[in-house]
Request: fold
Amino acid sequence: MGNTYGKKFCITTFGESHGKAIGVTIDGCPAGLNINEDFIQRELDRRKPGQSKITTQRKEGDRAEILSGVFEGKSTGTPMAIVIFNEDQKSKDYAHIADKFRPSHADYTYQEKYGVRDYRGGGRSSARETAARVAAGAVAKLFLKQIGVEINAYVSQVGAIVISKSYTELDFSKTEDNIVRCPDEKVANKMIELIDEVRKNQDTIGGVVSCVIKGTPAGLGEPVFDKLHAELGKAMLSINAVKGFEYGSGFKGVSMLGSQHNDLFENKDEKVITRTNHSGGIQGGISNGQDIYFNVAFKPVATIMQDQESIDVHGNATTVSGKGRHDPCVVPRAVPIVEAMAALVIADFYLLNKASKI
Amino acid sequence: MGNTYGKKFCITTFGESHGKAIGVTIDGCPAGLNINEDFIQRELDRRKPGQSKITTQRKEGDRAEILSGVFEGKSTGTPMAIVIFNEDQKSKDYAHIADKFRPSHADYTYQEKYGVRDYRGGGRSSARETAARVAAGAVAKLFLKQIGVEINAYVSQVGAIVISKSYTELDFSKTEDNIVRCPDEKVANKMIELIDEVRKNQDTIGGVVSCVIKGTPAGLGEPVFDKLHAELGKAMLSINAVKGFEYGSGFKGVSMLGSQHNDLFENKDEKVITRTNHSGGIQGGISNGQDIYFNVAFKPVATIMQDQESIDVHGNATTVSGKGRHDPCVVPRAVPIVEAMAALVIADFYLLNKASKI
Amino acid sequence: MGNTYGKKFCITTFGESHGKAIGVTIDGCPAGLNINEDFIQRELDRRKPGQSKITTQRKEGDRAEILSGVFEGKSTGTPMAIVIFNEDQKSKDYAHIADKFRPSHADYTYQEKYGVRDYRGGGRSSARETAARVAAGAVAKLFLKQIGVEINAYVSQVGAIVISKSYTELDFSKTEDNIVRCPDEKVANKMIELIDEVRKNQDTIGGVVSCVIKGTPAGLGEPVFDKLHAELGKAMLSINAVKGFEYGSGFKGVSMLGSQHNDLFENKDEKVITRTNHSGGIQGGISNGQDIYFNVAFKPVATIMQDQESIDVHGNATTVSGKGRHDPCVVPRAVPIVEAMAALVIADFYLLNKASKI
Amino acid sequence: MGNTYGKKFCITTFGESHGKAIGVTIDGCPAGLNINEDFIQRELDRRKPGQSKITTQRKEGDRAEILSGVFEGKSTGTPMAIVIFNEDQKSKDYAHIADKFRPSHADYTYQEKYGVRDYRGGGRSSARETAARVAAGAVAKLFLKQIGVEINAYVSQVGAIVISKSYTELDFSKTEDNIVRCPDEKVANKMIELIDEVRKNQDTIGGVVSCVIKGTPAGLGEPVFDKLHAELGKAMLSINAVKGFEYGSGFKGVSMLGSQHNDLFENKDEKVITRTNHSGGIQGGISNGQDIYFNVAFKPVATIMQDQESIDVHGNATTVSGKGRHDPCVVPRAVPIVEAMAALVIADFYLLNKASKI
Reply:
């Protein structure tokens, strides 16, 4: 229950932070797709820890191994299982929190829900699980490339430092040029500085990842419940530490008048476009062929290198001490995760839409 | 595809704005629940058009009729079909837009997706569909009352007018005291004034509905994809005109430090509580027993009483004129819809959670 | 839960035997399909009671009314709700069994599962529910006609009277020529005689409905669980009174040798065929383009016009007396139901298969 | 698509016969269950090849490795991934059929559906996939033991040799005493003799596996589509080589009169029982607390050690020669598979039923 996502391009993830392995099964990837394993690995490398001074110093090789569903380099239409064996399992790092509830983690809620709990590194609630999503998302991206869809996410805010430019003014080829993954170099430097300062203070800070999807054909989305943006929202909100989602004009659209907000249709060179795009490429829950764009809000990472008051499993007051190697800010590593989830949503709706008309 | 919501408390809606009827089938409502038809009707009355000067003047009786699943006043565990026959079907009102794409409506995307389209009043994409959700949500509310869960939504923003108080300072019993459904009377009056002004200008304006859920037991939510807030987000984003969702600290949490944001656990009178609640009652995707609260952003209604440039189905430039009776601001009538969707999500997760442990 | 069938061409039925109405919502019917309401009604007429001396004498008009999803005669891609209001509700007929458990009915199990029960005419467990399936199946048939699929069911056994001919020797245009719906007139007469005799003895008798699907393209079925024959089996077993399902060689295939049973492939006029068809048109759970054929076993109807010992809801011994107007043999009216469920399965798999390859 | 089974106790299998591994993810197993790995292995050993002279001589260790979802010996409520690495991968055994369609195998249909195909040992269509089901079924059995449900399958027919005794006359503790898994020793010897003879003739033969489920509480099953027997039927029909399913009186019930077939209720020592059990423990699709029993028909294995005419992927006539190590009769090894699928169905419905009443 709850570990499967998608209706046609359908993934099921498994694995705990400090268990033997994490992984994913992809069921419903169309047959005949060239599966570039190097690309999958490159996507995982973008997410993996230890990339820079502003991410956790944990070392995880994160080698993806495909166990099934691929034959002679092509997807066969059968389930593709991808497994990543856990290497750096310092379970002893976690003995000190075995019977404590870390503030704003999932320790308490997992204990309440399940009665038992793998406390090592957060177990199933660890963001390590997202590596499996990135692997699956890489396969979805390979598929989307074939149909001309391109997805670019980037960091648009860290703490109070916000990129002021619209996405249309940015050059996404520069996103990977700096360690915070913000395509505006000046802003990127300020973000890096802030994260570094926060890290030195043994604290953490939140941020926003923005994402732009280009090339989506009109017609994707399955109203009234499975609207395209509703599924994008769910997919993003299912990522660890996410607190909010908005698309198109988003929360700012609230203050606009209808006469300002409406996107006027125009026939430009035999192609229907809208003059503005407050709709964010989605109208009535269905893509209209314009750019889809949205923002994802991440809270500050809950693990801080400071002592915090809390309680233990017996209800007694206790102190939780920060230990281990953790991210001071999650957004740089969240960029490939947001892209992966976006790719999974678009791939799924693309396949679902094949049956809309006779 | 896409018209069913929920896994255990599961609803399927049907119907077009100007067809014979709209309705809903509820499959999975536990047997033995007292079905108070008056309560269902009262909830529908909160949503129906024509309530006040700041909502549309269309008259729709919206009488709910239960066709099945109830016997001698109790739910039987079999599907409960509720139908609302459409009365005020002025189809001719829509002849002028039969072959035009209204800006920022779903006309174009439905046409692209399906090839055919019921253009009368937006057809399936009309917010009229949400009446079916409210009817189903009323049944979910009846169930939730039995387990001590209470849901209160209210208007917290219209245009730039924002309620400044936290929800903890508000008296929800006052929400229904004014026509904008804002429990802070002073702010409410300003909102009403603004909407009225916008209406006179033949324009529309957006707003925010906030929602608070009290009494949810710890343990609801099915990570890693079906996290409680992820489903709440999807459910809200599936409502017409919604552009964003945030829960707990939301987008503001982005600028906070971990040391500020973390909610410290405390054992208070043998009950686990958190001193602050930036988590919004949900940690790791599972309810922790604290209040759940979230915001839902609505864009300005797309139908304005002004002429707008657009194109027709043949791609020719045309003008769309505003006609008919429409809401200048959707949020007052959206309050019961937000509550209904929240009730459906919580009821579903409550039932799903029954099987979490042996 | 449990009242929805199909993944893409997806139906949800509702309604009790003696409630206000029964009905169905079809979600996922492709847009642009011509919806012939007369055809839907004709299919319902094939199922309705009171057709002949060997079916129940109850009169039910069974007028199908489409509430949504059709515009100007075409499906719009949105949910199609079809409702059949109950007319002949002689609730008083059932007062005598209100607190008794009729032998081999679902009275006891519904009471145990749900705690409450609509005892009138079996409530939800009544075969009346299948009218909703026939209506939905008629829409599926309209779709299948477009892609060249034809479905023919017929009665192949009543009691010990079995049609000895293979389906390939039968003329399906004769199925509707007699009241038992057996295309072999001689056998039909014997069956009618037997049913009539059983009826006079105030008893009931079982039978077998056989079904042949022609024109299915190769490739339908979604292994490993949603094999084409596995879903056909589930669909048939979900019909009231069904006790068994077999396809192709079926239970007889058990006694065959592999060398006899294997169907040899042959290229005949540039078309792949098999010389024999013990596979029943399905190999590895996927259609191979040959005829699909299967048998469905129906038990004798549980309602007999005799006194039977039983217990009441308090556990006390009691007598159940046969009353009302019931079928002495269910199979003649089951023919359109079997066809309807087959049509729903094939339509669903056809749409699902659209996404198998890039 | 199609590789996931169950709604609450939900499994997804993956893997090809000659790929790196096969495996399964179980999502929804209740937390707190003691996971006995030895038991899982013992169940796999009952299914594995090379057990006796009447099964294939292939050697497969079939070591199950649990990658996730278990902590300190207990299920944690998170997905349990179990993987079995393939050892004995003689791919070269299959070079001779790389471009041929073996009669009555899934070669042709997979090629048609997917365009590509892992031809080695049947790839995904190989019965090797059922090892993953047996592993998952073992976990379901561990759960069912806790609630008092016991499942026993056995071989009741091989070719024309049928066990004549009812299951009530058999001693299931003797099922594992002989290599054919028939609890009646005399019949077992005849079956073994027949299989051995068939094997020497380089042929294969079909059979029937019967299954009895004791201790199921009343109330399991989710009508109208997800009836308990309908899901049991689907689950069984999804097993390789299955051609038919019947429960209770089954196909024989067809020839009975209602007055013979009806099971009269009786209150025996404050427990509701039925005097006979033609219903097979299921009425209206819901368990009534009596024994559930059913038969599963298996066709003769398609791989025979004889030359057969066929065609290749280019449509040219060719000859397929029998090679490799295969089962002359599948039913002895199918016994644990039938039990596994039955356990998965019952566990799923048990969990689903927890939400039936308030």
Notes: Chain A has one domain: 4-355.
